[in-house]
Amino acid sequence: MSLLEAQVHPESTALLVVDMQNDFCAEGGYLQRERGYNVGFAPALADRIQGLVRVARTAGMPVVWIRSVYDFKYLNEPYRVKRRDEGCCLEGTWGVEFFRLRPEPGEPIVTKHHYSAFFETDLHAQLQSLGVKTLVVTGVATNVCVDSTLREGFFRGYYIVVPEDCVNSNSKAGHEGTLATVRNNIGIVCPSEDIIQILTAPR
After folding, report:
1. Which has the closest alpha carbon to 166: 125, 137, 203?
2. What angle is formed at CA 84 by the lines to CA 83 and CA 85, rounded to 5 degrees?
3. Which of 35, 45, 48, 104 is deepest in the core (most CB within 10 A)?
4. DSSP string across 143-181
5. Is the model's pLDDT at 83 over the cut of 90?
6. Mean pLDDT value of segment 16-34
């Protein structure tokens, strides 16, 4: 049995979908519109994540949706200074909505105001109530919110699995750096197909 097979079981694994939102991923979203970021990777990324979500649901594995809300009223001073201007992922706007993906009724949605999905949220409590031991972490950006979330998950005692084709960033260097850190120090990096094969194999 491989290490991946030993760690990924539907009854003790959760799939996290991090920040797949219009302001991060869509043409006309904040990062593309205001900062000129290339988000051309996002549609194919969303499709690959959707494939993994579909298999996870069929296998009975929890899918947890993470979204950012960055109204300045929620951010501390250093965070506001670094963001420079308000406008990204604001409550009640198109930009905060999920990009090409939709939670099903009953699936947890965790709203965060910082990079890590664990910081000042109930994510850890929700995962513990579900008996989760392993996190499969997908979404954007690999080197920012995905990175912060998987690191804190690791610190809290979860096994970490990153399907390398289900995370991405406008920063290729940042993307590759996070994947290298996970491989060397934190968890497992693999193609999503390896996870799908485990979840669809006869039990």
Report:
1. 137
2. 95
3. 45
4. IIIIHHHHHHHHHTT-EEEEEGGGEE-S-HHHHHHHHHH
5. no
6. 98
The two three-digit tokens of residue 168, written as one number: 């991405």
The span from the CA of 61 to the CA of 70, in Å, is 29
What is the C-alpha separation between 6 and 64, in angstroms, rounded?
A: 21
Whole-number Å distance between alpha carbons of 64 and 118: 12
- How far apart CA 8 and CA 23 sit, in angstroms, is 31
User: For residue range 140-182, what is the model confidence (pLDDT) as tens digits?
Assistant: 999 999 999 999 999 999 999 999 999 999 999 999 999 999 9
Q: Contact 22/29 with Cβ under 8 angstroms?
A: yes
Backbone angles phi, psi at 137, to 5 degrees: -110, 125
**Cβ density class 62-85: b for 16+ within 10 Å, e for less:** bbbbbbbbbbeebbeeeeeeeeee
Mind telling me the catalytic residues?
Answer: 19, 112, 145
Q: How many residues does the chain have?
A: 203
